[in-house]
Amino acid sequence: MTPSPVGYDGRMDPLLARITIDPAVCHGKPCVRGLRYPVETLLELLSSGTSHDDILADYEDLECDDLLAVLAYAA
Q1: What is the number of domains present in the chain?
Q2: 46 lies in some domain
Q3: Could you read off the pLDDT of 55-70 as tens digits, one per residue?
Q4: Is the pTM of this model over 0.90?
Q5: C or N terminus of the chain, fewer CB within 10 Å?
Q6: φ, ψ at 19 (rounded to 5°)
């Protein structure tokens, strides 16, 4: 039986509810909304200077709040 994805309940910050951890997705690394976009990868893009608009254009299923959630998770 596969364990269900773990997400933050969002009581402290509703954005963190967008971050999920599922052993069956990306080897259990924290990802955005169960999609195969690891938080680590998005942080690398942001830290290299890639703009939010460019990331959202390249990854059409991501939303602006997803990038805000990644930053909140890193904080």
Answers
A1: 1
A2: yes
A3: 999 999 999 999 999 9
A4: no
A5: N
A6: -95, 125
